[in-house]
Fold this sequence. Notes:
single chain, alpha/beta, 6-stranded mixed beta sheet, 8 helices, 10 strands, 44% helix, elongated
Amino acid sequence: METKDLLKKVRKIEIKTRRLSDHIFSGEYHTSFKGRGMTFSEVREYQYGDDIRSIDWNVTARYNEPYIKVFEEERELTMVLMVDISGSESFGSRNQFKKDIVTEIAATMAFSATQNNDKIGLILFSDQIELYIPPKKGKSHVLRIIRELIEFEPKSHKTDVAQALKFLSGTQKKKAIVFVISDFMTAEYEQTLKIASKKHDITGIRVYDIREEKMPNLGMVSMLDAETGEIQVVNTGSKSVRMEYEKHYYDKVNYFRETFRKSGSGIVNTRVDESYVTKLLSYFKSRA
């Protein structure tokens, strides 16, 4: 993509998603996630009624008088956007690809965090870590994230959510608000999600297309697997083939739902032809 076209596209996404984050999401985001963490403020002398669990025993021993640690709500948070850029994200049946909606959601979340003066980081992943941008503040940083979401070309077209979560746990030592945006057409990430969710506040945002749910009866059709690159001739007229396809799809959907639920993580499901604004607002309000 030429620089001029890229800047136009970045600007278009910025105008749309910034308006959403300014007028709709910033307040809901603030209510949903602000004040979830506590940070150390000071040490002061123990007063009657203070929680004895807050006593700082080192300072108490030094001064021979009881002292306690005082904590306050964190003023700033860190948001990490984990975005699936594997081959299946390029699927779309109604003039819009999944990756377009994924980009808009990520941009909206980033601008909402900026309104809150929070840091934003980005992890682009396939079955490997394609790009990592450490958390930082500022509009120029958010615009860089949007540029990467639009034009980055992955080395692999496969998906491995577990690998991405492992990378998150290894790089993000402090608690973060994490949005994993993917179609989640993969499995075997239960254990890594369980570990990561103990430290971080994680939400899985599943973006999918209506044509992925059921295979239409179109007779013999050549189909391309976006993640492996293989082309297969499929008899869509066969009821057993269609049922097997549907079972495979819902096995992955149910795995996503159950795995995130068990780990205590949040879940949002949004179809490309639905309003992700409505879905996210509903989710934020349910957390408030």
